[in-house]
Amino acid sequence: MLYYPGPRRTPRPGMTRLEIDLDAVGGNYRVLSDMVRPVAVMAVVKDNAYGHGLVPVALRLKREGCAAFAVATLQEALVLAGAGIPASSVLILRALTSPELVIAVGQGFAVTVGDSRQLQEVDALAANGGGSPALVHLKLDTGLGRLGFLPAQAEEAASGIRSLTSTEVRGVYSHFAITAGGHPFMDTQLRRFNEACDVIGQSVPGTTRHIAASAATVGMREAWLDMVRPGGLLLGMAGLGEEPSGFKTALTLRAPVVHVKTVPAGWNVGYGLTYAAPDRQRIGIVAVGAGDSYPYALRGKSFVLVRGRRCRVVGMSLDQLMVDFSGVPDAVPGDEAVVIGSCGEESVSPKDLARLAGTSYGEILSRIPARVPRLYIENGYVSLVDSLTDLADAITHVHEKQGG
Fold first, then answer.
1. Closest Cα partner for 252 from 283, 285, 218, 288?
2. Which end of the chain lies in a sparser environment, N or C, as judged by fewer CB atoms within 10 Å?
3. Catalytic residue from among 4, 248, 271, 296
4. How many CB atoms within 10 Å of residue 395?
């Protein structure tokens, strides 16, 4: 549930939590807008804004002037509309079933259409509804092998557009299959896209073209076209080797140290007998685990930050990490571990973890469950909390009563 805490509360230790810096989100949008102007920006806030929180992130972006949003599902679109985002400014990226299309078209969302059958289905729904025209973005498959008309079907798409009576084609878009800057296949996809748009544009001249997500927005200027479609970049991340300059990571995942012990040489730590202490070793238990979207694949590879130092994760379970505290002999229960974020001169980024786990940062972040409270920070204070209970606020009250 979303709720507003007491006035001017500062973040306090004592529980596993995400801290989302909404000022960073706003600043990233301003940097991006200045960078691509006069090209338009569509903010991709799908998958709960990559775990950052759909509504708080979208509302902050709206305050900054963002006028176009993309989500994955009809449910996400309905949530945004309920929060005050105009339905006509929301594009649903995923293909919808026929029952979902009835709702989406009726509510006035823009929908993705990638074949002639669905194009006619959407048009018929709008015609039978007798109200406003259906809003559509055509999807082209330029090499990802997912949704969309193939380039060879561009004339078929154009013919279908000419037959529409109750549909407004607002955009034509595609998506890159690889995000490595300078990869020749990106050039191939862009060429295919532009050629298909030339054909389709004869039926809908002036329609908005967009293909650049975060990585291409940073690394492929010629792909900006009429609109860019960033997601992770607005949160301080992009699918490139290095983080783009000028953008600030918005998310920090913190977890308390709940137990510290010294185990003898040869003592097993964690499931599967995969790690034994090489000597007497201090082990710290940190209250976060695989159930909080910290992949088991990170065991023995990743680090958390404690008192500004990197400490290796040597064992884990669904709810706890076992961490080598040899390098922090002064660490005690009650300390905090930074699982994602910065501490002193050290940092652990979502992309660092994704690289070690063999996955994407989007997968890790979007799976962080609701049991991890989100604290939204503006001007250094908690402005909003998203939590299953009001525990975050209760712990803050405890700190205040104890004079913390």
1. 288
2. N
3. 271
4. 17
The answer to which of 86-100, 153-167, 229-243, 369-383 has the lowest mean pLDDT is 229-243
Q: Which of these is catalytic: 46, 62, 139, 351?
A: 46
Domain regions of the chain by residue span: 22-235, 251-372
Please give the CATH number for the structural domain made up of 251-372. Answer: 2.40.37.10
Q: Is 275 a catalytic residue?
A: no
Per-residue pLDDT band for 395 (boundaries 50, 70, 90) equals: low
| Token code pair at residue 127 | 């015609």
pTM of this prediction?
Answer: 0.94
Residue holding tokens 């993705």?
Answer: 112
**Residue 379: how many CB atoms within 10 A of its CB?**
8
For residue 130, the model assigns a pLDDT of 76
- What is the mean pLDDT of the segment spanning 286-295? 97
Q: Is 46 a catalytic residue?
A: yes
Burial 67-83 (b: 16+ CB within 10 A, else e): ebbbbbbbebbbbbbee
Query: What is the distance in angstroms between the CA of the first residue and the CA of the last residue of the chain?
Result: 26
Alpha-carbon span 16 to 4, nearest angstrom: 19
CATH number of 22-235: 3.20.20.10
